[in-house]
Amino acid sequence: MFEQLGLVGCGLMGGSFALALKRAGLVKRVVGFSPSETTTARALQMGVIDHIATSASNAAIGSDLVLIAVPVSATQASFQAIAQELSSNCLVMDVGSTKSDVLAAAKAALGKKLVQFVPAHPIAGKEVAGVEHADVDLYTGCQVILTPTDLADLIDNSQLQQATSVWQALGCKVRHMSATDHDAAFAAVSHLPHLLAFAFMNGISSQKQRSEFLDLAGPGFRDFTRIAAGDPKVWRDIFLANSAEVLAQSQNFRFSLEALERAVLAGDAAAIEALISQASHIRAHWSLNGPSIQ
Amino acid sequence: MFEQLGLVGCGLMGGSFALALKRAGLVKRVVGFSPSETTTARALQMGVIDHIATSASNAAIGSDLVLIAVPVSATQASFQAIAQELSSNCLVMDVGSTKSDVLAAAKAALGKKLVQFVPAHPIAGKEVAGVEHADVDLYTGCQVILTPTDLADLIDNSQLQQATSVWQALGCKVRHMSATDHDAAFAAVSHLPHLLAFAFMNGISSQKQRSEFLDLAGPGFRDFTRIAAGDPKVWRDIFLANSAEVLAQSQNFRFSLEALERAVLAGDAAAIEALISQASHIRAHWSLNGPSIQ
Question: Among all residues of chain B, which has the CA nearest to that of A239?
Answer without folding.
Answer: B264
